[in-house]
Structure to design on (759 residues):
């Protein structure tokens, strides 16, 4: 059962990802991205990481895609075919395929070593404890990272005192 | 589990200083830009100084790991903490006149410099991959914003875009590497990873891919070949004080992290990574030096020069010895003084003459003899000529490599050093020999002039009286000695 | 065949490499950003899968994944602001037209 679900969700994610990187219409690309993100969220559920799946949907689907769509709207890419034409795509394809071969080969060859063939999840309580007790310091640092990003988006987005273009921070 | 937050007091002060600067900027009336500039920069310098003093006085003897290895508060991180705070103060002082003329958000600017210093400090203290990653992001984000902050021309917008896109890509690659390493070892703490790797036999492909990708990500931050492409354009397009910050702070922080990472995690299997890293070091030195030759823009030239300098530093990291580590740390200190001095002079030229090509240095010896002398000192130090920091530190770096049968690397290093002499001397020649029509005296702003003097003194100090610095680096390296060979 | 770690690893690798292709081949800066998002999601799949298939499942993997999502969100907000500013100055977000190598 798990395997079937995996193939469905995984296939969906990969097809959508392919759509993101090959489509000529950039808005379609953003929508493909949304589908891919949702597929990944489904995969998280398959891995018993429900909280993460929820966070994935909320932040990626709810905030990031929205921001991207706003940015597309504001940069007025009406000239779709020019904007999404591929450059040097043969070399890019070769590099990507080579890397994939490497990583997939590594996965097939080695995964027996640290694989228990049993998926187990983590309770939200454990995750919360981990996040706020063990990893409290990165957590605090992350809050400053967000502050910096916020300052940056506002100041750069508004630079030149021109109207419009406030970075929509999710 | 040691969760003694008093160990983190300097970091708290630093973060607080950043917020304080923002608050001061908020409370002052918007129109009085001059006052805002003055007050916020003063607050920033004060905050940085207090952090440095508190750290230096309270943490001289600590050798603690915070939270079981999340952060290491020891002499190693103390050395870098003080260095970074010093760099921060220098860049803030460097910026005061620059911000007044060319930029519109003084409060955010100084606060972001403080946050960048905070990120760098945490990078030097990281004992574990997640903390390292998030600290890198803190430093990087602050720099992304700082690069894009000026009332810019198109060049700044381009540099900013390039920087953030390439930074995002390198982060993604490094993260994949982290995930691979985590997958193989089940932990992200350096000490635990080191133990597991030392016990492991052959490295399997997943492990190698993880390592390579993490190093690739760090390589971007370091502008090590072949990940150096972003540096010249970003250096040229960024506001010059920020160029100085990127050249010194982010490189030194990346070196701090890389050195600790390789020492604690990789020492068990040095033979796996020594050769590849040596090859990359050689490539970096060669590419940096050769690409600098045709440059006419001083900021691009300094960018390529700092790429080559990173190659020299890698020569010290590759042997994975105590001597090598000492040499690396000493070189980083000297390199910071030298580059900051050079950039200070560049800023003065830019503010007074408005241009950044080498030809604009013509006749500087007559127009501002003190500046010419300081610039010459910085350039000679970069080239590695005696009495300046560069000579001593390069000497240490090269000898440390000879010890480990890496003589070929030393040959490459010396050869590229000689090549680099050409482009450094070329600037000196412009300053002293080239005739120029305009022989008016160049007025040097007081604050910048003072800063240039202090940095120049530092460059010479490291070169002829390195003892206090060497003591500091020795103490720092003893932290690494459980792992690093003698 | 039962569902095992290698499945997820290969999927993550495929997603990562698709993202890498997008980064290398696409001309619009916003497209490059979307490709980076794909890469970051691949990292997350890798992390969560590793964390789930261990003997005692390890919190670390999921915690790192949360931070990756956080940083990704912040990065996108900032990067889009920068790109929009570029668009205002240059009228284009085409990465080829940003002079990559001026020498």
């Amino acid at each position: 059962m798990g395997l079937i679900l995996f193939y469905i969700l995984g296939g969906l994610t990969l097809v959508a990802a392919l759509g993101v990187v090959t489509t000529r219409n950039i808005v379609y690309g953003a929508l493909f991205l949304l589908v891919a993100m949702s597929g990944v969220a489904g995969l998280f559920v398959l891995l018993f990481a429900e909280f993460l799946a929820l966070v994935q949907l909320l932040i990626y689907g709810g905030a990031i895609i929205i921001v991207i769509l706003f940015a597309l709207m504001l940069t007025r890419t009406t000239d779709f075919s020019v904007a999404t034409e591929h450059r040097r795509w043969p070399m890019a394809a070769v590099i990507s395929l080579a890397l994939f071969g490497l990583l997939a080969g590594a996965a097939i060859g080695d995964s027996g070593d640290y694989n228990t063939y049993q998926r187990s999840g983590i309770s939200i309580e454990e995750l919360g404890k981990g996040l706020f007790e063990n990893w409290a310091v990165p957590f605090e640092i992350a809050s400053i990272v967000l502050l910096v990003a916020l300052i940056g988006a506002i100041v750069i987005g508004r630079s030149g005192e021109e109207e419009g273009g406030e970075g929509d921070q999710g | 589990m040691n969760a003694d937050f008093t160990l983190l007091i300097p970091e708290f002060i630093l973060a607080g200083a950043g917020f304080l600067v923002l608050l001061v900027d908020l409370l002052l009336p918007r129109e009085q830009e001059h006052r805002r500039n003055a007050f916020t920069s003063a607050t920033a310098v004060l905050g940085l100084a207090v952090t440095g003093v508190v750290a230096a006085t309270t943490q001289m003897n600590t050798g603690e790991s915070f939270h079981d290895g999340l952060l290491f508060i020891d002499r190693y991180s103390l050395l870098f903490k003080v260095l970074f705070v010093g760099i921060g103060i220098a860049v803030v002082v460097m910026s005061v006149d620059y911000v007044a003329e060319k930029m519109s958000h003084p409060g955010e600017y100084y606060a972001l410099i403080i946050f960048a210093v905070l990120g760098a400090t945490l990078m030097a203290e990281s004992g574990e991959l997640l903390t390292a990653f998030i600290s890198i992001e803190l430093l990087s984000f602050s720099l992304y914003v700082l690069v894009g902050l000026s009332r810019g021309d198109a060049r700044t917008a381009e540099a900013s875009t390039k920087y953030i896109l390439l930074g995002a890509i390198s982060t993604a690659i490094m993260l994949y590497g982290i995930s691979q390493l985590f997958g193989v070892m089940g932990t992200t703490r350096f000490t635990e990873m080191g133990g597991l790797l030392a016990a492991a036999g052959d490295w399997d492909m997943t492990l190698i891919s993880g390592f390579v990708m993490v190093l690739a990500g760090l390589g971007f931050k370091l502008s090590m070949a072949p990940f150096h492409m972003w540096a010249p354009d970003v250096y040229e397009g960024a506001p010059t004080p920020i160029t100085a910050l990127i050249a010194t702070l982010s490189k030194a922080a990346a070196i701090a992290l890389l050195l600790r990472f390789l020492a604690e995690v990789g020492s068990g299997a040095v033979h796996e990574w020594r050769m590849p890293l040596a090859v990359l070091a050689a490539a970096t030195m060669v590419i940096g030096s050769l690409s600098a030759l045709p440059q006419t823009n001083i900021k691009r030239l300094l960018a390529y020069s700092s790429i080559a300098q990173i190659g020299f530093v890698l020569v010290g990291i590759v042997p994975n010895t105590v001597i090598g580590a000492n040499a690396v740390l000493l070189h980083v200190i000297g390199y910071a003084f030298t580059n900051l001095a050079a950039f200070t002079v560049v800023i003065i030229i830019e503010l007074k003459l408005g241009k950044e090509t080498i030809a604009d240095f013509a006749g500087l010896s007559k127009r501002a003899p003190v500046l010419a002398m300081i610039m010459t000192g910085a350039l000679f130090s970069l080239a590695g000529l005696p009495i300046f920091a560069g000579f001593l530190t390069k000497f240490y770096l090269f000898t440390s490599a000879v010890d480990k049968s890496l003589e070929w690397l030393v040959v490459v290093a010396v050869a590229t050093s000689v090549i680099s002499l050409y482009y450094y001397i070329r600037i000196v020649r412009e300053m002293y020999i080239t005739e120029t029509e305009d022989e008016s005296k160049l007025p040097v702003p007081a604050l910048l002039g003072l800063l240039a003097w202090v940095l120049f003194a530092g460059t010479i100090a490291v070169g002829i009286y390195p003892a206090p610095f060497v003591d500091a680096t020795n103490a720092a390296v003893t932290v690494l000695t459980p792992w690093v060979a003698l | 065949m039962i569902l095992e770690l290698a499945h997820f690893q290969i999927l993550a690798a495929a997603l990562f490499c698709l993202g890498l292709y997008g980064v290398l081949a696409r001309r619009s800066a916003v497209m490059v950003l979307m490709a980076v998002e794909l890469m970051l999601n691949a990292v997350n799949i890798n992390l969560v899968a590793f964390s789930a298939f261990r003997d005692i499942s390890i919190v670390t993997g999921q915690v790192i994944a949360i931070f990756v999502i956080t940083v990704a969100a912040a990065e996108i907000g900032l990067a889009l602001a920068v790109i929009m500013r570029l668009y205002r100055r240059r009228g284009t977000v085409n990465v080829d037209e940003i002079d990559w190598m001026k020498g």
About this structure: Chain A has a mean pLDDT of 82. Helices of chain A lie at 2-22, 26-46, 50-74, 80-83, 89-110, 124-134, 136-157. The CA atoms of residues 154 and 167 of chain A lie 6 Å apart.
